[in-house]
């Protein structure tokens, strides 16, 4: 893992450059570089459990203000009936993340997705965070500054700040920039089963449209497929294999 190259990519993102092949984006002077936690080079380094810094996307306190800003374009959402609720908006952000990380797997026990995100700020701070959808919705996680010493020195020495030390205005700027940056990326389809206290939720993007369906505590393939086909799914042509995805989710449930 070449942390210097990652830092340089984040710096390019901070100038507004986008490179989807390298999962590099940016906005408002912030640069972001994303990685899939399943990357074998990252797992032994960032396997220390992160803590929640704040809500993200529509689960951040100032989201209503973001909705009023001209930079957010909702032209792609015109086909969705009614107002876009917060979960559907966050699924669109997740669809952009899927474009940046094509192999990212969605679904799990109180987790829809989790991705590592390196951040470069207008104040020249560089630090790691994780962007995830968990029990409290979409959020940003991170590590305290003193935890960096648990990482290899050649990596930790490049980190000069912790997201936990950002004041309210800086944190707002970070979340706002991340929304704007992801909204600059095309949305890709994905499908995942999110297991929670009330049962299971099927969360998908299909043809750029978010779909959420409650499955209850148990569900069958055919019942779910009938509803998805109503929404326009073509199981012969879709890029993801729905039945295999359901089997993985049920296997994770059995394994606890």
What does this structure look like?
By secondary structure, the protein is α+β, with helices and mostly antiparallel strands. The protein folds into two domains: 3-183, no CATH class; 190-255. Helix content is 30%, strand content 25%. It has seven helices and ten strands. The strands form two sheets. Strands 1-2-5-6-7-3 form a six-stranded antiparallel beta sheet. A hairpin with a 5-residue loop joins β5 and β6 (126-134). It is globular and about 50 Å long. The two termini are 31 Å apart. The relative contact order is 0.16. Mean pLDDT is 79; it is low at 62-84 and 248-256.
Please describe the topology of this protein.
Layout lengths: L2 H12 L9 E4 L2 E7 L14 E5 L7 H6 L17 H15 L7 E2 L3 E8 L5 E9 L2 E6 L10 H4 L11 H16 L6 E7 L2 E8 L2 E8 L4 H10 L11 H14 L1
Parallel strand pairs: 4-8
Antiparallel strand pairs: 1-2, 2-5, 3-7, 5-6, 6-7, 8-9, 9-10
Quick structural gist:
This protein has 256 residues and is α+β, with helices and mostly antiparallel strands. It has 7 helices and 10 strands. It folds into 2 domains: 181 residues, no CATH class; 66 residues.
Q: What is the average of the pLDDT values? A: 79
Helix content class: 25-40%
Please tell me how large the radius of gyration is: 18 Å
Strand content: 25-35%
State the end-to-end CA separation: 31 Å
Per DSSP, the total helix count is: 7
Describe the largest sheet.
6 strands, antiparallel
Strand sequence of the main sheet, in spatial order? 1-2-5-6-7-3
